[in-house]
Amino acid sequence: MKQTVPTFYSAFQCTASACSDNCCIGWEIDIDPRTYQYYRSVTSPFAKKLNENIYPETPPHFLLGQDERCPFLNQKNLCEIFIHLGEEHLCEICTQHPRFHEWFGDYKESGLGLCCEEAARLLLSDSEPLSFVTMTTEEQPDDADFDAELLAFLLSFREQLFGVLQDRTQPLAKRMKQVLVLSAQAQDKIDAGELMGEVSDKDSSIEEDFAEEASAILMETLDFLQTLDPIDEGWSKRLCELSESLFDILSQREIFYQLTAGRLYEWEHLCVYFLYRYLLKAVWDGDLLSRVKFSVFSTLMIFLLGMQTFSQKGGFSLQDQIFNAKAYSKEIEYSDENLEAVLEQTWVSSAFSLPSLLGLIDFLL
Predict the structure, then answer these.
(1) pLDDT single digits (tens) 210-225
(2) Are residues 76 and 201 in the same domain?
(3) Residue 189 and residue 199: Cα distance in Å, rounded?
(4) Boundary-marking domain end, from 96, 112, 138
(5) SS3 state of residue 88
(6) b or e along 62-82 (b: 16 or more beta carbons within 10 Å of the residue's beta carbon)?
(7) Looking at the structure, do residues 190 and 81 belong to the same domain, yes or no?
(8) Whether the Cβ atoms of residue 362 and residue 356 lie closer than 8 Å to each other
(9) Are 12 and 120 in contact (CB under 8 A)?
């Protein structure tokens, strides 16, 4: 099997106690079928605690305890399953997090999710354009059925978008707008079954004018985000503060832009990350455009969170960027319900229309 990963993928190591967060607190941890069957077979004295702290229905998962701690996280923040059963008997999510994978027959893509501070640091700390490497592995091909011609088109088109985003001879705003316009054309080609040739935006009829003021569109998107179920209650508070202070925050955008002018590659990396993680999923349903809109919107939201941080602290460090990316990713990417809700909005809400997103890019960047 061929596997593609970001070049920094193999450099990842959990920072454990050095991390400000804990992956065993505040997360519902599902148990994969193979590991669940093993846990059911345990007969040692530890079996009693296993049985008492696992919800057996589909999907089986650990029952969180006080302060939403994993019931097997002891007072020294050590894993009791690791201690009593061994590392080889941790469930998949515990051994794989924050890695993500997508399989397409004999081709696989993997990456590191932004909900992890160390993964975000690896993504954001290098100013060089994000790059990927493909290797051969011993893993057996996946047997899921998919449209190979569509996958080839998506792979080629994504490379085209990466090239646009990483062309630093152009302003970041222009690059991100071109990504949206090209993606609208690509969606038209998919809908028409025309999967040959490079996508061109020369004949695009998309207008960059939008009816509402950009600040009103931002307020609408913030109102929508506040309707989603939060993983961390602090996120709800932050969105509320962002809405209440939006106009004051936006009044400082020129200062913030000047402060971060030499760090715009961080948002370039973020947009590339979202496209890498989500665009190929269109092979399952043909819906490329919503995933590109999601990628651009997510990048803009993290930019807005940066402006909020700057307005509160008077500065904006790499660590601030990492925490903001992690907070957004945790609440949106790592809740299936929230992710689906945002993707749906890209089709039904005027705030997520192409003209609105193009206008927001101009307004914020």
Answers:
(1) 445 888 999 999 999 9
(2) no
(3) 8
(4) 96
(5) helix
(6) bebeeeebbbbbeeeeebbbe
(7) no
(8) no
(9) no
What range does the domain containing 62 cover? 24-96
List of long-range contacts for 58-62, beta carbons under 8 Å, 24+ apart: 59/30, 59/31, 60/30, 60/31, 60/36, 61/28, 61/29, 61/30, 61/31, 62/28, 62/29, 62/31
Contact 209, 359 (CB under 8 A): yes
143 inside domain? no
**Domain annotation covers residue 13:** no
Token couple for 361: 């890019």
Q: Residue 111 falls within a domain, yes or no? A: no
Helix axes 214-225, 354-364, angle to 10 degrees: 110
Segment 119-167, tens digit of pLDDT: 999 999 999 999 999 999 999 998 889 999 999 999 999 999 999 999 9
Q: In a 10 Å sphere around its CB, with 0-12 CB exposed, 13-18 middle and 19+ buried, how is residue 140 labelled?
A: exposed
Local structure of 99: helix, strand or coil: strand
How far is the C-alpha of 172 from the C-alpha of 136, rounded, in Å?
34
Tokens found for residue 181: 């316009």
Ranges in the chain, pLDDT < 70: 201-212
Name residues whose C-beta falls within 8 Å of residue 42's C-beta, 6 or more positions apart in sequence: 50, 85
Count how many domains the chain has: 2
158 and 90 in a common domain: no
DSSP 3-state of 265: helix
